[in-house]
Input
Amino acid sequence: MSSPTHELQAYLHAHIPLSHAMQVSVLDITADSVLLAAPLAPNINHRETVFGGSASALAILSAWALLHTRLRDAGVASRLVIQRNTMDYELPIVGDFTARSSLADPDAWPQFTRMLSRRGKARMEVRAVLECAGQVVGRLSGEFVALR
Amino acid sequence: MSSPTHELQAYLHAHIPLSHAMQVSVLDITADSVLLAAPLAPNINHRETVFGGSASALAILSAWALLHTRLRDAGVASRLVIQRNTMDYELPIVGDFTARSSLADPDAWPQFTRMLSRRGKARMEVRAVLECAGQVVGRLSGEFVALR
Output
C-alpha cells in the first residue's frame, strides 16, 4: 500500500541515511504542513534528552519536505537549497518528539512560484515547531532558495 | 592507547548515537578549538551533498565539545544546555567535511567562569566553521548556558 506519507518516508530513508538512523517517520502531509516524528533512543544525548543536532535535523527535514511537496504538487521542477536557519531550544526534549512545518507567510506563495518561473530563483522562509508530549520544546526558522 | 581525542570520540559515540551514525571523528583538541570531521557517505542527501541537518549537527558537537573540555579542564562541574543557534550554509558540501569551534569572545571566559561559580549560571557564545577541501562551506553561531 502506498500513500504520500509512506512515499515521503521511503524517499527520506533511501536518500538521506541520517533520517533512517534517526528513525524519522512521516505522520502527516497537507498543503500547509508536514508533520514528522522521531523517537528518543536513536537521538539521545549524554543527558538522556534529545541531542540538539537531532532536534535541528528533524525541524530542517520537515521544513524542506513542505517546500518539496508544494513545489512538486504545483508541477514546478526545481531544487531546494537551505541557506540559513535559526533554532531555538526552548525546553529539554525528554521523549519522542515531532516537528511540524508551515510557511512563515503563506500569502507569499504565489509571488514565490512566479519569481521561480520568471527568474529561475526564489526565496521562502519556512518555520517548524518541535513538540514533545503536547508541549512546544523548540522552534526553527529556515530560509530556502528554490532554483529551476 | 588513550588520548584526549580518542577519549572524546569514544564518549560521543557511546552517549550520542547520532555521532556514531554520522561517523564523527575527533581530530584535534586545544584550549582554543575542537576540530571534528565526518565523511560524506553517512551524511549525504538526495543531491549527493551533505544534508543540512548533518552539517548543523557536526558544528553543534564541535561547539559543545569546546565548552565541555574547557569547563572540565577548569575543574568546574556543570552541565551545558544549547539555547539557540544560527547556521549559515554558504556552499554545498560535496565531500568529507570538518567543523572547527572557537569562543566568539575568548576574553569573556574569566567572566563566564566567575558568573558560573557565583550565580550557578552563565552564558557563552561559541562559533564553528565548516570546511570541505580547504574551503569554508558554512558557519554556526551557538549560544550555550552552563549550569552548576
